[in-house]
Design brief:
heterodimer; A: mainly beta; 7-stranded mixed beta sheet; 4-stranded antiparallel beta sheet; 11 strands; 0% helix; globular; B: mainly beta; 6-stranded mixed beta sheet
């Protein structure tokens, strides 16, 4: 499988609990992105990595959210002390270096659905 | 600020009809990229096309075609002879630097 892989696909958690999502990008893609999508809306940018460096974070990414990409390969997105407003689909995406032929194309995974009850 | 507007929230047509999904964007940048993605019920965003701001050639891929008009800041998507499998939510997006800015999506339903 050469696509972006995310797990778990679905997570139901109680308010106040911590959750972690994992993303495995397409092999050799050095850019990795996290987006959030709520029902009826388009995805919204959360954060972006170039290799292991987190280069940009949206104001949507509150202090309860943290993303890492320790070795420049897979990434994790952790949400601490979840709130009902965190219920959404969390999409991971990756892209190759910008100088490659498809460097400006961003490929998405299937998303991780989070429900906070 | 960058913005993408998909004015059609939902479209419903009968199979084999042609359908056009509208997309209008706003940006002050001279270099940018436009995209269309398809999102079936499974949730994955499937890449359909990328167009850069310097290339206004229309593109056709099978039953899909895209009309990019810089003068009107539009990047419309037409499906010819629609099929039930085309039913999904379609997103138009604008990329500048490293972020994609998405429209709110158009839910397309193709009825048999």
């Amino acid at each position: 499988d050469t696509g972006v892989s995310q797990n778990p696909r679905h997570k139901i958690t109680k308010r106040g609990q911590n959750v972690t999502f994992r993303c495995d990008p397409i092999s050799e893609h050095n850019r990795l992105y996290w987006y959030r999508q709520t029902l009826g809306q388009g995805p919204e940018f959360l954060t972006y990595f170039q290799n292991e460096a987190q280069l940009e974070k949206s104001r949507l990414l509150s202090d309860r959210f943290s993303a890492e990409r320790p070795k420049g390969s897979f990434s994790t997105l952790e949400i601490q002390r979840t709130e009902q407003g965190d219920s959404a689909m969390y999409l991971c995406a990756s892209s190759p270096d910008i100088w490659t032929g498809s460097g400006n194309t961003i490929y998405f995974g299937e998303g991780s659905w989070l429900t906070v009850v | 600020a960058q913005k993408v507007t998909q004015a059609q929230t939902e479209i419903s047509v009968v199979e084999k009809e042609d359908v056009t999904l509208d997309c209008v964007y706003e940006t002050r940048d001279t270099t940018y990229y436009l995209f269309w993605y398809k999102q079936p019920p499974s949730g994955e965003l499937v890449f359909l096309i990328r167009r850069n701001s310097f290339d206004e050639q229309n593109e056709i891929s099978g039953r899909y075609s895209w009309n990019f008009q810089k003068s009107t800041s539009s990047f419309n998507f037409t499906i010819t002879a629609s099929q039930v499998v085309d039913s999904a939510v379609y997103f138009c997006a604008l990329k500048n630097d490293q972020k994609l800015v998405f429209g709110q999506g158009t839910r397309l339903t193709i009825n048999p």
